[in-house]
Amino acid sequence: MATSGGGSYRNGTHRNSLKVDRPFSMNSNPKTSVKSKPLSSSGLRRSSTGSIGAAKDDAGVPGRVRVAVRLRPRNTEELVADADFADCVELQPELKRLKLRKNNWDSDTYEFDEVLTEFASQKRVYEVVAKPVVESVLDGYNGTIMAYGQTGTGKTYTLGRLGEEDTAARGIMVRAMEDILADVSLETDSISVSYLQLYMETIQDLLDPANDNIPIVEDSKTGDVSLPGANLVEIRDQKSFVELLRLGEAHRFAANTKLNTESSRSHAILMVHVKRSVKGKHSALSSEKGSNLHMKTLRPAIVRKGKLVVVDLAGSERIDKSGSEGHTLEEAKSINLSLSALGKCINALAENSVHVPVRDSKLTRLLKDSFGGTARTSLVITIGPSPRHRGETASTIMFGQRAMKVENMLKLKEEFDYKSLSRGLDIQLDKLISEHERQQKAFENEIERITTEAQNRISEVERNYEDALEEERVKYQRDYMESIKKLEEQLVKNQQKHGFEKVPVRSEDDCSALTSNTESSKISAVEEVSELKKLLQKESLLRKAAEEEVNSLKSQLAQWKRSEASGNSEIIKLRKMLEDEALQKEKLEGEIAILHSQLLQISSEADETRRRLDRGGSGKVPGDLDSLFSQVKLQQQEPGNGEKASVAKLFEQVGLQKILSLLESEDSDLRIHAVKVVANLAAEETNQEKIVEAGGLTSLLMLLRSSENETIHRVAAGAIANLAMNETNQELIMGQGGIGLLSITAANAEDPQTLRMVAGAIANLCGNDKLQMKLRGEGGIKALLGMVRCRHPDVLAQVARGIANFAKCESRASMQGTKTGRSLLIEDGALPWIVQNANNEASPIRRHIELALCHLAQHGMFLFSCL
Ligand code: ADP
Ligand code: MG
């Protein structure tokens, strides 16, 4: 710790001792020293896990508390009262040093991260003290800016000046909000603010003074501290923020007047919550429609939640002078409790004590994350120049020196935004449902319209037909009646004529007259008959025409009936479509239910991941493949399930190509997960051809060559072993230098499971007659035998299987006469191991060795070599 050091002024020269107990290499902009670590060039340091801050760099990034000292210019009173005295301090800003005068000839020197003279502008103070913290908050870290010092030395001036009359005088709070507002996008990000006062261990809301007993709530899992009882006001522009500060100041003044306290005895705390969406702002749910909605759209956005805490502490003077203001001892203790507890915590942290008494006061509980926590913290200590306050100034300086020793571990506060993903899904579901209802309604209306139209047409045709029929009937009846009437008239006429003929003959004259009468009536009867004939003809013509008309009407009717029938069939068709739609709706509802359950599963997995991470575990699953794995699991657990087909499709949707491309990902975790997926797929015979066609085999071999990760080697070798069950693939593996790569992997591997996979792959290759020479030539047998150094029975079993396979091919070749001479196996030195393990306890090893021995014996070389 930098403590006072003896310095003497002799022979006109200062001899100041500089007691700084650690090497200093201060970076005037701490941001650069720390920020470069947590952030990659993309500005995002994370793997795609559930809770990122706790994933890879769980320990965080070291970030010491930075301390600047600021000297207030002499005020009017000091100019007069201290006119004859020198300031108690002398600043050397370029050396970042401060000398505290002990007396005229002796002084102590202290180093700070920044030394701000009485001429330092508010702008410079902001840039040096606060800006790096504000930038960290915007990047998703917590940040604290705090002022400590004796009353009247400029804490409020430094932090809280609104600077409305003179913008150059704006303090840190106002400038910080300006920077935050300039950097965020209010469409996707949000800023909210609480403003509080802590006095006598009571927290009061400065935005709502009636709310004056706010409890501190601690999350038992994460240890995060929050004040859910405080007003949280959303900020959208600078003006409303300044208004809010002014309101808070007014309430603070009023409250302190009422309580008969001085504002210098209370702590003012401003909390700014910045929530930012950093990725996938639009990806949570794209505008995909209908049943195209699938898992690939389930990608939650990531949110970063930085919290900036600005603390204007109570005056540091008189910490030990309780009772000086007429308070009772208890009151006085309470007044000073928080500040002295803060001093104790900082001492404990500076000295790396096991116990830090954080729980002793509300202030230290609230600042838990700021000192020894995960926040970037910047402290400005304010001092006055007056030699009369030398004691207070010295104690302030010592506080600052101790605070400089406190190390924090900065952690990114980043997490998946599952809430908005779920909200997005709900909206999409609502849309789907209402779209479906709308379609169904439209269909029903259309069917109703067509039905009424058809009915109208049918009744119109029926009406027309009836009218026409009635008209015809009336017309014929009339014609008929007329002709009957005519005939009757004719008949009456004729009867009258015949009546004359029946008169008795009275004389010759009468007789002759009668004779001539008879003649004429005969003539008229003939005429009558011919007229009747004509009438009859006409009648029959008319009848014919009527019959034709009736026929044409009948055919017209038949035609109408046909069109009615076709109308009916159209209705049937529409009914069918309606039924199909209903089925489709059911299907959609089914899909919706599946999506819901998938969402549930994802959420529960996320919870599980979070829990694991909370427990300090480091297991993680890359987000993109996360759902894929859970799908694969689902598929494996529920064979024959109705969803199987759609799950199987998942690979096609994600795309084998995409999975394979992940094998070359920069992110090693992603690579591991991708190679596991490929290995799982390769275990299914049906997938093997697809994998090889898509270049998977080449990628897997490349992983053996390029990766240094043993997990990757193990899984890739396992996948290759699976692929090597097929003869075509065996040739491909050999053709691509596979045996060499497997040999190197075998030579470097430690893990028995890796060796088992490699041995399995080589054993499969050993069973191919065509590859014997090449396999041996490229060191395959040697590699196989080399693996017996690992005595794991699983590895030995695979080695034995390889040898048996190879021996089988050799004996087959020798029987077919395609090979003569000594066994290549024996030439490569396999025999001693074979003999040694012929009685191995493990039955798989023994069985394979027995087989190998049989084949070698058949080969004929065996006995010979033994002799
Ligand atoms: P504190 O909050 O530490 O009690 P204040 O901020 O209220 O102190 O400052 C006390 C007085 O000193 C105020 O009148 C303020 O305007 C003035 N003052 C403080 N710092 C400076 C400075 N750097 N330059 C000019 N005046 C200052
Ligand atoms: Mg003040």
Automatic annotation (TrEMBL):
It is found in: Cytoplasm, Cytoskeleton. Residues 35-51 have a biased composition (Low complexity). ATP binds at G149, Q150, T151, G152, T153, G154, K155, T156. InterPro entries: Armadillo, KIF11-like, Kinesin_motor_CS, Kinesin_motor_dom. GO terms for biological process: microtubule-based movement; mitotic spindle assembly; spindle elongation. PANTHER family: KINESIN-LIKE PROTEIN (PTHR47970:SF30), KINESIN-LIKE PROTEIN KIF11 (PTHR47970). Interacts (via C-terminus) with NEK5. This is Kinesin-like protein. It comes from Carya illinoinensis.
